[in-house]
Amino acid sequence: MKRLIAVFTFMFVLFSTFSTVSAAPLYKDVGDDHAAKAELDFLASKGIITGNPALNFGVDAEITRLEAAEMLVKSLRLNSSNQPDPNFTDVTADHVNFPIMAAIANEGIIHADENGAFNPDVPFTRGEAAVFLVRAFELKGTISTPFVDVLPTYWVAEAINTLQTTNIATGYPDNTFKPLANITKADFAIFIARILNPDFRIKAPTVPTIPTVPAVPASCEKPSNTKTVKVKVNVQVTSLWHKPGIDRAVDHPAISTPVDISKWMKTMNLKQKWWLVDKTDTQALFGEEVTVLQKSGKWTKIAVKDQYVPYLKEGYPGWVPSSHLFETATDTSNCSIAIVNAKSSTLYSDTNKKNKYIDISYTTILPVIKEEGEWLHVLTPQNGVKYLAKKDAKVHKNYAAVPKPTQKDIVNSAKMFLGLPYLWAGTSSFGFDCSGIIYSVYKNHGILIPRDSFYQATKGTPVSKSNLQPGDLVFFAGNGGKGKVYHVGLYIGDGKMLHAPNASDKVKIESISAGVYKRNYSGARRYLD
Fold first, then answer.
1. Cβ neighbours for 441, distance < 8 A, ≥ 6 positions apart
2. Could you say which residues form the signal peptide (predicted)?
3. Looking at the DSSP assignment, which residues form a beta bridge with residue 290?
C-alpha cells in the first residue's frame, strides 16, 4: 500500500510538470519522428531515463534485468540505500549496481532465480515484463477476451491480462502478445510511460477482428473465427535439461538452432556421454506439441504432452532453449498425419531434393496437406509446407486411427535400431536410451506408454516370466529385483530381449537370464491386447 501511495504521489507530480514533448533529439536512434519519442521524452523529463543525443537508447535491443530494475527503481522512487543483502549467488555487495538489484528484489518485484542468481545481464520475455510491472505498480483488472497466444496455463497469463485490460499493452495487429519473445528496451519503457501517464494508453478496441484468411494454403485447415495457439518443437530434436544453462561447450550442437544431434553424438567422448546422466531427462521431436511452464532468460521450461509422468498432468517437464520452440495458431485438426517409420528421413523445400530443409527422426509426426506422386506435402511449425518421401512414412486420418500393431510389428520396428549408439534421455533415432526406444516404437504404432522405465513398470498388464510373449516389456531393479526399476528391455522371444544397455554400449540383443539381468529381473508388463 505504501508503494501504491508513492506511485500516485509521483504521478501527480508528473502531470503537474510535464506538458509538451521536447523538440530536441533525445538519442541518436530516437528522432523526432520515432513512434516512442513522446513516451521516452516523458520518462527523460522525470529522470527515469537519461537522454543523450550522442548515444543510442537501444530501442530494438533486448532490455536486461538490471536495466529494467533501474528504470523501476527510479519510477517508484525506491530508496536503494542500506538495503538488506538478498544474498545473490552471482552478484556481490561490492557490485556498483548492487543497491538497485537489492532494492528491486527486496520489494518482491524481480526475484532471483531458483539458484539464487539475479542474472543482471540476462534479457527477459514480454510475459515476464508483464509480471514485473504488475507487481511494481500493483495493477489490477481482468478481461474476458485475452490475447490469442496467451494460454490460461501460462504463469504470466494473469499479469498480461491485466496489462491488456488497462490498455497498457495492446499487442500486435493479429491480437497476439508474443509472451515468449524477449522484450525490447523501447517496449518496456513505453509500458512504464503508459502506466504513469494514462494519456499514453491506447483507447482503441483491444481485440481487433481476427483475419479469416488461412495462414497457409491448407485445404484441411479447419475454418474458424478464433485461433487456439499451440507451442511446438521447431528443431529436429530438443533435449529437455534438468536445469537451464548447465550445458557444456560440447553440447552446442544439441542446444544451437538448428540442432545437429548426429554431430553431438559423434563429438562426445564416453566420459562426456556419461556426464549427461541426471542432467538431461528426455527429448521431444520436431513438430511435437508442448506446454510452456516457465521462462528463465533464454531457456523455457516445457512439458511434453505425450510423455506421461504421474506428478504433472501437462506431461514430462524439462528446460529447453527458447529458440527451439515456435507458437502457431494454425489449426490442422482436420488434416491427416504422417508418422515417419523409416530410421530417419529428410524434409525438402522442393521435390528435386536440391534444397534440404531438415533431417527428422523415426516417429516424427506431421500434418499432411496433400499427397502427390512420391511425396507428402507436410506442414512445419514455422516454415510452411515441406516435402517428405512417401516411402519413409505412413499416413493415417489421425493418431486414433493408427491400427494396433502385432507382436511382430513391434519387434521388427525395434530391430531397425540394432547397433545404434546409446544416448541418455534419448527418444529419437539419432540415439535412444533403454526406455526411449521402447516408448518411440510403441508411439509409432499408435500406443502411448509412459516415457521412463520405472513408470512403464506401473502400467500395462503384469505378466509372469513363464508367460512372456514378444513385445512385452521386461524390467530390472536393484537389490536382486526388489528395488527401484532402473532398466527395461523389449522381449523378442526365446528368452531374449532387445535393449539399449548404457552409454558404453549400443542397441543389442541379449538373454534376459545373462549375468546381472538374471539376478535383477523384477517383472514384465504387456501393452499389446
1. 363, 410, 413, 414, 490
2. 1-23
3. 231, 304
Catalytic choice (324, 377, 445, 487): 487
pLDDT in tens, 266-319: 999 999 999 999 999 999 999 999 999 998 889 999 999 999 999 999 999 999
185-196 helix and 126-137 helix, angle to the nearest 10 degrees: 30
* Residue 121 φ then ψ, to 5°: -100, 10
Which residues, at least 6 apart from 410, have a Cβ–Cβ distance to it below 8 Å? 441, 442, 445, 470, 471, 490, 528
Sheet holding 325-328, edge to edge: 280-285, 237-241, 316-321, 299-304, 289-296, 230-233, 325-328
**Residue 514, phi-psi category: left (phi > 0), alpha (psi -120 to 50), beta (remainder):** beta
Collect all residues with Cβ–Cβ distance below 8 Å to 401 and sequence separation of at least 6. Answer: none
The type of residue at 157 is A
Cα separations (Å) of 325 from 138, 182, 359? 31, 13, 17
Using alpha carbons, select from 342, 304, 338, 337 the residue that is nearest to residue 320: 304
Residue 13's pLDDT band, with cuts at 50, 70 and 90, is very low
Active-site entry in 324, 335, 434, 445: 434
Vertex 326 angle, CA 322 and 330, to 5°: 165
The cell 490475447 sits on which residue? 147
Cα four-point dihedral sign 187, 193, 197, 200? negative
Report the sign of the C-alpha dihedral through residues 298, 299, 300, 305, in that order.
positive
324 belongs to the catalytic site: no
| Count of CA atoms in the C-beta half-sphere (13 A) of 358 | 23
Q: Is 173 helix (H, G, I), strand (E, B) or coil?
A: coil
The tens digit of pLDDT for each residue in 169-208 reads 888 877 888 888 889 999 999 999 999 999 998 764 434 3
Maximal C-alpha separation, the chain: 88
End-to-end CA distance of the chain: 63
Any alpha helices (H) in 197-296, and if so which ranges?
Answer: 252-255, 261-267, 270-275
Is 252 known to be catalytic? Answer: no
In order of start, what are the domains of the chain with their CATH numbers? 36-200 (no CATH), 222-331 (2.30.30.40), 337-401 (2.30.30.40), 407-526 (3.90.1720.10)
- Residue 250: exposed, middle, or buried by beta-carbon count in 10 A (0-12, 13-18, 19+)? middle
- Helical packing angle, 2-17 and 185-196, nearest 10°: 90
Answer yes or no: 220 catalytic: no
The dihedral through the CA atoms of 34, 38, 39, 41 has a sign that is positive
Beta-sheet strand order (sheet of 393-396): 356-361, 344-348, 385-389, 375-379, 365-372, 336-340, 393-396
Residues 6+ apart with CB under 8 A from 261: 236, 237, 253, 254, 428, 430, 431
Give alpha helix (H) positions in 217-330: 252-255, 261-267, 270-275
The SS3 call for residue 119 is coil
